Amino acid sequence: MFTDYVSVSLRRYLMPLAMLLVIGSGLPFPLSIVHAAEPGIVGVVAGKIADTDWPWWRGPHRNGIAPSSARPPRQWSVQSNLLWKAPIPGRGHSSPTVVGKRIFLTSADETSKTQLALCFDRDTGKLNWRVQLHQGGFDHNNKKNSFASSTIACDGERVFVVSWNGGAIWTTALDLAGKQLWRVRVADFVSHQGYSSSPAIYQDFVLVAADSKGKGTSCLVALDRKTGKQAWQVMRPKMPNYVSPTIFQVAGKDQLLMAGCDVMSGFDPRNGKVIWECPGSTTECVGSVVTTEGLVFASGGYPKHETICVRADGSKEILWRNRVKVYVPSLLAYEGYVYAVTDNGVSYCWAARTGKEMWKGRLQGGFSASPILAGGLIYITSEQGQTHIFKPSPKALEVVASNSLGEEVFASPVFSGKDLFLRVTLADGGRQEYLCCIRETAAP
Length: 444
Fold this sequence. Notes:
By secondary structure, the protein is mainly beta. Helices cover about 5% and strands about 40% of the residues.
């Protein structure tokens, strides 16, 4: 593609002009234009993704920040602003993926031991299709994890699902109608606390991480999105880890960033070569790496409690670290500050460059979901179904609203246009998961 060859500086001027031309034409955004126009956003891929889509884990910018087109609701309950709720067969912790009129989700039926890919209608919640990916092959699992914790990635043409089954990590590609295009056994995998890493899309590749202990094959792999053929593989330390690969443009380069396995790493996503690596972030991490101003941030939970900031220019300089454990939720970096909500509800704001603690507060509940910034506010949902909304400010923790929906929530909220999508569990005559669409204009 043209953008693969022009310089970064040239794109900085040409791409905003291209966006204006596309906006004026009324056509949907090609994903290449969306990404090249956003600072720090990389990954030119084929296909069409609108500026209101949420195509993969942590959103279109991969950083937990919703696009500027998001107009999220601030108030909702079972009685108000709940546009629709759709029952989900089985159980899972993956977040919804929204592309056009389709919502994709993974789930697992632990009774029949089947792993599923699901597609719902965006407007009505109707189940469009249900595809069985695997049957049997369930290993033991951590009670706070599931057999469907990996969030689907979609390039506008294909749906990519990563599953842990039968002692291995598998990647399956489906078309938008649910037809299987290919399936690849990525690596042998030995579980410690299950599997939760989500796939990432970069140029022609779908990137999959399988950090495994023992006899597993611990690796980071790039597969061709059209064929599933392996493009490159990087061997990783044989340690349990749960982080999703994340791609940002940092220090003038496209970098695939990983934490965990006792190292912080920046790879070239085109070939897997190590750009930089330094000790840090402990062995087991779950939350995704975030970045701002050429700095990379990560936090882990076992065996050390550590949040760390590393300069990603190849110097390997660790600017600051503290002993705060943010194990499952991802961090959020925004306008020179890093926001965190720990698993037990302690929230923090740190200055990105110095690590100075600006404030520390308490939110009610325990947390596995990650914070999302949408419409100028931060949304974080507790395991008990309460979504707290607070301002991204270094001055103090200022909660502007709290809304309850569901008795149990592990998946992160997803935003698209005026809609908020939540995966929740309601006690409807027993345990039942629902995909919920919340819109402030909905009638009570």
